[in-house]
Amino acid sequence: MRKTTGTMMVTAMLAQASAASAQFQMPPPPPAPRSMPGNPMQPSSKWAANFGDNSCEIARDFDTGKQQVELVFRPLTGTDQIQVELRYRGAPPKPLGGNARFAMYPAGSSATGGYFDAALPPEEPFERLTMITLQRKDVAELAHSQVITLVYGSKMASLAPGVLGDVAKVLKECEDDLVKSWGYDPKLMSSLMAAPTPVSPEKWFSARDLPSKRDARDVRPPSVRFTVGADGVVSNCALVFSSGSKMFDDRACALMTTRARYKPALDAAGQPVAALMVSPVLRPFGS
């Protein structure tokens, strides 16, 4: 059972997409279909929740008879980001990382964010995953959408996930409970005047610090949570989402605590305060 160990100002920032854009040059996202695609993949299972010590996620299988995929929604708790993950069998997209587009129909609105494709362990039922990170505010139409389309690199997938309003409610309840278990107060998340702001994030990491493009082929960006103090210094770093490589996971927190610097969060009175951050640690796609 999760236990509340204390309270603290909590906030969010540094999304995978915005961090990638700030640190590395990536091509623009591909366009999405202008109208709702016909024959989207239909669900072959009910929604299944997976609530762990560091994440909240809900998944559903889809099957056309010729192709099977799993759709996963995973909010990056403590941030204004949400990850949409597609697990599948088959050839990976080209390139393995970059910008993606997430479209919602019938509204026809779309969101853009960074994506990363990686192989899954042999014991997993699917071979690969594509993970797209989006701003939550950009997917406001998601709860009312009949069809969603993911466009990333050379790939496109359209699915009919069903009504998502209850999915969003379940994830919100899980996130509040999770933040409390970390020792923070979710009710204070919206009380800050300003979130921590990264200072020159493009200088934090180099190709020598993170796995090369070849070595990182079978790992995904790890996510870490940490405290940004009132002085902008990073501390209390802990792994939230594994890359699949212990060496990469260990290096992620070491790099964040020694390299990352922020302008601190500001409370309602405009005074610097400590804040929770959750962030992926990215490899330069061009390295």
Characterization of the model:
The protein has 287 residues and is of the alpha+beta class. It has two domains: 27-163, no CATH class; 171-280, TolA/TonB C-terminal domain. Helix content is 14%, strand content 33%. The chain has a nine-stranded antiparallel β-sheet. A three-stranded antiparallel β-sheet has the order 12-11-16, covered by helices on one side. A hairpin with a 4-residue loop joins strand 1 (48-51) and strand 2. The longest helix is centred in the middle third of the chain and has 17 residues, at 165-181. The radius of gyration is 19 Å and the shape is globular. The N and C termini lie far apart (42 Å). The model is unreliable at 1-24 (pLDDT under 50).
Features:
287 residues, alpha+beta, TolA/TonB C-terminal domain, 2 domains, 9-stranded antiparallel β-sheet, 3 helices
